[in-house]
């Protein structure tokens, strides 16, 4: 599968294109989406091919992003606003270039890390003669079963890694907020303590009054 990326992500766009170039045979990509940015990917798909787009926001803000999928004629096949994760399956109605974009334009200062998996078509058979009319041998059936089980394991591992990364991001964000809150409380306690000291000191200090006598 060949993906092409294009967007307004500045220097991160080049990083995304590098990741795409290094993983041109793969359908899973994780990229950085800056604030006020939009990143698009393009894929040449043949008519009648079944495709699945799955995405999830790993870090940043409220973990949401806008997603839009368009056909070769510009028709909108899928559009969701501020979604944390979702999956969409469709069958290509015509030959051409399909475009799907992720937008963070609604965010003013929060960067996002987005993962997506774009699957085009079915996996090739494990054996060239797997689709033959005769039944598979016991060894071939065992290999096919192991192959399907390993694919399920890979999918589970991917989702667990995404959940771990998201949980770690939330924990670090919570830790940062707690640290700032603790520093603020310490500063407030210090100021209140100093104020109480000066207030108590003013209660016990000697007040001298000056009496002015006017000579008659």
Automatic annotation (TrEMBL):
<keyword id="KW-0472">Membrane</keyword>
<dbReference type="GO" id="GO:0033116">
    <property type="term" value="C:endoplasmic reticulum-Golgi intermediate compartment membrane"/>
</dbReference>
<keyword id="KW-1133">Transmembrane helix</keyword>
<keyword id="KW-0256">Endoplasmic reticulum</keyword>
<dbReference type="InterPro" id="IPR009038">
    <property type="entry name" value="GOLD_dom"/>
</dbReference>
<keyword id="KW-0333">Golgi apparatus</keyword>
<keyword id="KW-0813">Transport</keyword>
<keyword id="KW-0325">Glycoprotein</keyword>
<dbReference type="GO" id="GO:0012507">
    <property type="term" value="C:ER to Golgi transport vesicle membrane"/>
</dbReference>
<keyword id="KW-0732">Signal</keyword>
<dbReference type="InterPro" id="IPR015720">
    <property type="entry name" value="Emp24-like"/>
</dbReference>
<comment type="similarity">
    <text>Belongs to the EMP24/GP25L family.</text>
</comment>
<dbReference type="GO" id="GO:0005789">
    <property type="term" value="C:endoplasmic reticulum membrane"/>
</dbReference>
<feature type="signal peptide">
    <location>
        <begin position="1"/>
        <end position="26"/>
    </location>
</feature>
<dbReference type="GO" id="GO:0015031">
    <property type="term" value="P:protein transport"/>
</dbReference>
<keyword id="KW-0812">Transmembrane</keyword>
<keyword id="KW-0968">Cytoplasmic vesicle</keyword>
<feature type="transmembrane region" description="Helical">
    <location>
        <begin position="178"/>
        <end position="200"/>
    </location>
</feature>
<dbReference type="GO" id="GO:0030663">
    <property type="term" value="C:COPI-coated vesicle membrane"/>
</dbReference>
<dbReference type="Pfam" id="PF01105">
    <property type="entry name" value="EMP24_GP25L"/>
</dbReference>
<dbReference type="GO" id="GO:0005794">
    <property type="term" value="C:Golgi apparatus"/>
</dbReference>
<protein>
    <recommendedName>
        <fullName>Transmembrane emp24 domain-containing protein 7</fullName>
    </recommendedName>
</protein>
<dbReference type="InterPro" id="IPR036598">
    <property type="entry name" value="GOLD_dom_sf"/>
</dbReference>
<feature type="domain" description="GOLD">
    <location>
        <begin position="38"/>
        <end position="120"/>
    </location>
</feature>
<comment type="function">
    <text>Potential role in vesicular protein trafficking, mainly in the early secretory pathway. Appears to play a role in the biosynthesis of secreted cargo including processing and post-translational modifications.</text>
</comment>
<keyword id="KW-0653">Protein transport</keyword>
């Amino acid at each position: 599968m060949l993906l092409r990326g294009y967007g307004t992500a500045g220097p991160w766009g080049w990083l995304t294109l590098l990741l795409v170039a290094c993983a041109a045979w793969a359908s899973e990509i994780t990229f950085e989406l800056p604030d006020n940015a939009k990143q698009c990917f393009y894929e040449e798909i043949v008519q009648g091919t079944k495709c699945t787009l799955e995405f999830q926001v790993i870090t940043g803000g409220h973990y949401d992003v806008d997603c839009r999928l368009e056909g070769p004629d510009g028709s909108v096949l899928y559009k969701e606003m501020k979604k944390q994760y979702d999956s969409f399956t469709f069958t290509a109605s015509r030959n051409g270039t399909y475009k799907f974009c992720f937008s963070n334009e609604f965010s003013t200062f929060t960067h996002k890390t987005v993962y997506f998996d774009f699957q085009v078509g079915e996996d090739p058979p494990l054996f060239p003669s797997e689709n033959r009319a005769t039944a598979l041998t016991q060894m071939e059936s065992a290999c096919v079963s192991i192959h399907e089980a390993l694919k399920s394991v890979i999918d589970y591992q991917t989702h667990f890694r995404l959940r771990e990364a998201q949980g770690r991001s939330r924990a670090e964000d919570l830790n940062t907020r707690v640290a700032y809150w603790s520093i603020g409380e310490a500063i407030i306690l210090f100021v209140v303590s100093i104020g109480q000291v000066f207030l108590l000191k003013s209660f016990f200090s000697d007040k001298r009054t000056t009496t002015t006598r006017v000579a008659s």
